[in-house]
Amino acid sequence: MVNWSQESILVTGGTGSFGKKFVEVMLREYHPHRLVIFSRDELKQHEMRESGFQHPSLRYFIGDVRDVDRLRRALSEITIVIHAAALKQVPACEYNPFEAIQTNIMGGRNVIDAAIDSDVRRILALSTDKAVNPINLYGATKLCAEKMFVQANAYAGTRDTRFSCARYGNVVGSRGSVIPIFIEQRKRGKITITDPRMTRFWLTLEHGVKFVISCLEQMHGGEIFVPKIPSMRLLDLAETIAPGCEVENIGIRPGEKLHEVLVSEDESRNTLETEEMFVIQPTHPWWRSDNWVHARPLPEGFRYSSDANDRWLTRRELEELVAPERNASEAMPASA
Question: 130 an active-site residue?
Answer without folding.
Answer: yes
